[in-house]
Design goal:
With about 270 residues, the protein is mainly beta. The protein has two helices and 15 strands.
């Protein structure tokens, strides 16, 4: 029986409701695992209310509230529009990411004080997303065509006290992606094909980040990642992305094409 699963829009964070492929007798390939895990992390035609909890190395936190709207575009590309609701000093900030299946994603950030949307491209994609431990590159991390994937031995991992048997896939990003990472290791639940942990390595081959999916809620046939944590292992900081409310299968009238354009976010600002 097929089941539908849901992912958050960030990782690049940043996650389309799709029908998962039926299980087969043969072991899936590394490419198939990454493709399915990517699909299962994507929220399609949805509106989500989220909380960003940003912790410094001393454990002090800052809170930001956002609304994320995501839909499927042509060629199954994911379009995401994020609006910062609070606190007051970031209210009105907007982020737009339009997946480009054949190259670098189109990303734009609108800051009310500036009044125009700035394109996020090249080295800028390595920077922090609004002071969090997610980078702009992390928003689109995990696309199947962005790297060369190699299967490693299955293992078990424990996330938030729960143990999972997982497929382990090592990904080397393609040169044309200009990634900040030289290696990405993804741990994918063998039952649900939901990624449970992603380890990220820098140019020196040292692990610098870990992303964990530590709370996944089952709602009917849908699996909803309710808490995603990005840890910066070198700085000792972390960011939690919590889903507070969500609506899926949203009517197209609530997610019009023009909402996912540079002109729209400049007009909204």
């Amino acid at each position: 029986m097929t089941t539908r699963r849901l992912r958050s829009p960030f990782v690049l964070l940043f996650l389309s409701l799709l029908l998962a492929a039926p299980a087969s007798a043969a072991e899936p390939t590394a490419d198939e695992i990454i493709k399915r895990s990517s699909e299962n992390r994507t929220v399609s035609n949805s509106i989500q209310k989220m909380t960003l909890e940003i912790y410094d190395k001393s454990g002090n936190s800052r809170i930001r509230k956002i609304t994320s709207r995501t839909r499927k575009g042509p060629q199954d590309a994911t379009w995401s529009y994020v609006y910062f609701d609070e606190p007051e000093d970031v209210a009105g900030v907007q982020f737009l990411s339009v997946e480009n299946p054949t190259g670098e994603d189109d990303q734009w950030m609108f800051m009310p004080a500036i009044g125009t949307a700035n394109r996020i491209a090249g080295s800028s994609r390595k920077g922090s997303f609004m002071g969090t431990d997610f980078s702009y590159e992390d928003m689109s991390l995990g696309q199947a065509d962005d790297g060369d994937h190699t299967m490693r031995a299955k293992t078990s991992i424990t996330v938030a006290g729960e143990t999972f048997e997982v497929h382990v896939v090592e990904t080397v990003p393609k040169a044309e992606t200009k990634s900040a990472y030289t290696k990405v290791v993804t741990y994918v639940d063998v039952v649900e094909f939901m990624p449970r942990q992603v380890d990220l390595f820098d140019k020196k081959g040292e692990q610098i980040k870990r992303m964990s999916f530590s709370s996944v809620e089952k709602s009917g046939e849908v699996l909803v990642p309710k808490l995603i944590t990005m840890e910066n292992l070198k700085r000792g900081t972390k960011t939690n992305l919590k889903v507070d409310e969500y609506e899926v299968n949203v009517d197209a009238s609530k997610l019009p094409d023009e909402m996912f354009t540079k002109e729209y976010i400049e007009g909204e600002g």
